[in-house]
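Lab channel / #folding
Pinned by the channel admin:
"Please post every new chain as: sequence first, then the structure tokens as a reply. Keep commentary short and put observations after the output so the thread stays searchable."

First post following the new format, from NK:
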Amino acid sequence: MNEHPPDVLELLVRHELAIKRLYETFAGLFPHRSDFWRRLASEEQKHADWLTALQSGSMGQQFMLESHLKAEAISLSIAYVDDQSRKAAAGNFSAMEALAIARDIENALLEKQFSKLRNTGSSALKSAVMNLAAETEKHRSALVQAIFSEQKERS
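Reply from TO:
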């Protein structure tokens, strides 16, 4: 059985879905922020759908040729997010820790993944990547604000 390894776009889809599951877990653990986490989870599903659409079109081939993303790095990030989901399901995080973990994941996406994609060729592909980066920045900003709010509530 010689299965070929998943392509980078497939791994990015899996990554978005792993983050979605983590946020859904946080929604169940922190009822006072349930709507916040569910909104983020829903948007992660939207990101996965965008990436899936890229996969099926000609842009998917171009993406594979032009991206400098490493499958191993994405796989490690998926494993990290899945590990955080397991820990969260066991109740190992406070609300503040959950927010900080999510912020760090969104930061890593911006710094390590999307920053490598900014120089892609076609305008359509560049637009898709920039939309994902803008959505990720929106998540990061929302998480920073939620952390600030959580700190304020506790003081």
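NK: The chain has one domain: 8-154.
TO: also worth noting, Residues 8-154 form a domain with the Ferritin fold (CATH 1.20.1260.10).
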